[in-house]
Amino acid sequence: MNKTIIANWKLNLDHLEAIQLFQKLNYSLDNDIDKKIKIVVAPSFTSLRSIQTIIEADKLKLYLASQDVSEFVEGAYTGEVSVTQLEKLKISFCIVGHSERRQHFNETDESINLKVHNLINKKIVPVICFGESIEQRKSENYLDFLIEQVEKSIKGLRKDKVDEIIFAYEPVWAIGTGETPSLQDIVDVISNIKEFLSSKPFFDEENTKFIYGGRVTPDNSKEILNTKIVNGALVGGASLDVDKFIKIIESIE
Ligand code: PEP
Hints:
Layout: E1 3-8, H1 15-28, E2 37-42, H2 45-57, E3 63-66, H3 83-88, E4 93-96, H4 99-104, H5 109-121, E5 125-130, H6 134-138, H7 142-153, E6 165-169, H8 183-197, E7 208-213, H9 221-225, E8 232-235, H10 242-250
Parallel strand pairs: 1-2, 1-8, 2-3, 3-4, 4-5, 5-6, 6-7, 7-8
Helix pairs in contact: 1-2, 1-10, 7-8
This protein binds phosphoenolpyruvate.
């Protein structure tokens, strides 16, 4: 089963700690871990270079993601990191539109759309997060809200440009909390988004993946990850604990 598991380390670990955790993860992974499972690590910007060096030197079958990228490509934008800089570091994936960025840094759908275009131009796979708050979930039209979020993030994408794109359904009320949606909730949302996207010119079954994020742990990963429509997981808290993270990966049958 083709699955992508992304470890979002968020604002944790300096670069030395990140190297340590990465090495521990690498040594703990079974050598013959299914080639169809892609394991991706998303550390802070300051750790990307160190980890990329290890991946390259040891020819590891692990991938790097950035947790964000600038909507600007270059110029007078102090504090920003561009797609060109990520490309040079051979970063394969980039998380965009994480709810924490939408909430704490006022990230807008328009800026997410610019980031997605810039990443696709550089062949870096965007991992586009979308999800509803608890208030939205309680309202009748939360699916319309989710579809609108997704629609705005992909505005203007053309088929000839898109090699791969990942959508991460992350209900805001489940991130970092004890709450998780039921499997049926996850399947319903992904099915609806998939149906919406199926009419888009860039979409095909091969290039578009759907993953789930929001309190994925070894207790619920088996059920979630062995569901056909779910192509993987975005894992926050549990990814900082190698034993838990390995258990999540090993739950894929
Ligand atoms: C996340 O950060 O994307 C996430 C899903 O976090 P957690 O697994 O801790 O809920």
